[in-house]
Amino acid sequence: MIRRLGDEGNVDGIQYLLHQMKLEGLHCNPDLFVNVMNSFVKVGLSEQALKLFYRIDEFGCKPTVKMYNLLLDALLSENRFEMNLGNVDEAKELSTRFQPSVPMYNALINGFCKEERIQEAMKLLNQMVEDGVPPNVITYSTVISSLADRGNVELALAVFCKMFVRNCTPNLHTFSSLIKGYFAYGRCHGALAVWNQMISEGFEPNFVVYNTLLHGLASRGRMEEAISVFNTMGKYGWSANITTYGTLIDGFAKSGDLIGSSETWNRMINSGCVPNVVVYTSMVDALCRNSMFNEAHCLIESMAAENCLPNTVTFNVFIKHLACRGRTEWAVRVLDGMGRYGCSPNATTYNELLVGVLKSEGVKQGIDLFKEMEERGIMPNLLTYNSILHSVSRAGMVDIALQLVGKMVVLGMKPDAFTFNMVIDAYSRQGKVDTAIRVMEGLSSGGKWSPDSVAYTNILWGICNEFGVEKASSGLEKMVESGVFPNVATWNVLVRGLFTSLDHVGSVSLFGDIISDNG
């Protein structure tokens, strides 16, 4: 009866039957209790299952490892760790009721890694060893994957090495995680070293590892090596799928190689592999990067005929390239026509168009587009605000710039360094250098932001324009004293100021003094 109620999801009926059994003094056997708990878990009531587990003695039943594993998996799979700290304590407290085991530790470590609590996962890994429970390849691979995904490939490699020290043999997932992590942070040499080690250890790559290597090489523009790997796959009997072809087409597109993209596209079609929206979008990107907008437009139109409708990302790519090439009117028409394909523009759509409009049509048109975006109920993001801020600041429209920053704060959006630099730039361009300095110092002292070379260069530009390059020397000293060193843009501002205010000989002399004082 309880099993049937569980299949129906009738937890109220189950609770009623349990209550009746308790009143009549009937005991539950462990298998029946597991069925009851599993019924709660299936409908998302893991906490209720946990409470029932704590009352297990009332039903004349003793806890088993099977019950424990069911509860622990449920708590972790529902990602309940971050809801409140008590749930972590519940999981840990639950684990103390049983003899420590590899599955128990693996479940906890996996849960912590999913919640990005990698330090606690590492502590558990060390605790396993202390408790005499040897971590297995799943334990290590989980930690290595989490570390690599977060860019800490050095620590991931250290854990990888520790596997060998503890006589634990890695598997393909272990190697794949390291390769992916190295590529994600641009460390191609490290990724290839891991690949070579994998081959030398006698491991035969599977489809996932091949695609991971292909994606890493293609994303870094190393297309010759990617094609070599692609050909090797075929030799070992691995047939390329849509992900493989899509990776190569995208890599060629981002490298500006239309021939490579086209040849791969034709190879894909000839193999009988049907392109999906991701591959179509990559091909649109390849055509646009070569200014073949008519062909890109035709490809988008053909997608509907092939029963593969373009999505918002497809249109965003097309609009981005049109706007960047000054074809804003066409880009606007594309945006307006998205609805015909069941697509709606998002913040990225407007951001791509906004950059082009601000560049080719001016601030007023950009502000109008910004307002249209809000009227359509699309929330501007930080990139939207920064794009507008850049233009209004360069136009000396300080009041509008400050209004925009104020609006960002009211909406709970956190300004970044670019935002603050644009405000300082606006004040400097208006000749309000003292105000720009006060803003910079106020933000710095409040701990909200540490001024960078861009901020100081903007200030120095204002000082040179308003007071002359002699006054800029003290600003340069403050810049260096604060640990921010001048870059090419900074020196360009100072040199321009020198040649503007002095004759050639005097400029060279004063420039030499500045170099000697700050070098």
TrEMBL record:
Keyword Repeat: yes
Record's keyword annotation contains Phosphoprotein: no
Gene3D superfamilies named among the record's database cross-references: Tetratricopeptide repeat domain
Coiled coil: none
Protein family membership: Belongs to the PPR family. P subfamily.
InterPro entries: PPR_P_subfamily (IPR050872), PPR_rpt (IPR002885), TPR-like_helical_dom_sf (IPR011990)
Keyword terms, alphabetized: Repeat
Source organism of this protein record: Linum tenue
Annotated protein name in UniProt: Pentatricopeptide repeat-containing protein
PPR repeat boundaries on the chain: 29-63, 101-135, 136-170, 171-205, 206-240, 241-275, 276-310, 311-345, 346-380, 381-415, 416-450, 452-486
